[in-house]
Amino acid sequence: MLKITYLEDGIYVEYLSKTVETWKAARTIFSLRAAVSIYLESSTACLILQIDLPHLTSLTKLAEEELIDIILCDEEYVELSLLGTWVSQSKDSEEGTFVCDLGHENENLLYKLWQESQIGTSVVSE
Questions:
Q1: Between 23 and 124, whose confidence is greater?
Q2: pTM surpassing 0.85?
């Protein structure tokens, strides 16, 4: 499973060996026990990757299988659109977690590409 967490200070991607259904069930139980609202919705999420990453061409297979959409942003970046489930505390929340199932190999590839795209793109603030 691929897990993308959207927070105020950035986006974080994780590759987990759990299934989406197992993770959603555990997350729902946790929210109920903690008496915290939970909102789940079928949705899409986007990842922005540098266009010059090695193995980026491997994603064309995923696009052909309609597991992702690849959109050229500009000369330096592409946007990947994924189908999955959005999990947050409320319907209008801008922070939350997106989970999807693309198969272990595909998820691992996306995770590694995201990691590679993060090298050298950090912004240092004072």
A1: 23
A2: yes
At residue 87, the 3 state secondary structure works out as strand
**Nearest-CA neighbor of 52 among 72, 67, 81, 82?**
72
Q: Where are the domains of the chain?
A: 2-118
Strands 77-88 and 39-50: antiparallel
Q: Give the side-chain half-sphere CA count within 13 A for 60.
A: 5
- Number of Cβ within 10 Å of residue 114's Cβ equals 21
Question: How many other C-beta atoms can be found within 10 angstroms of the C-beta atom of residue 79?
Answer: 14
Instruction: Give the pLDDT of residue 121.
Output: 52
- The answer on pLDDT for 67 being more than 90 is no
State how far the Cα of 81 lies from the Cα of 62, in Å rounded to an integer: 11
Strand ranges (E), the chain: 2-7, 10-15, 39-50, 68-72, 77-88, 96-100
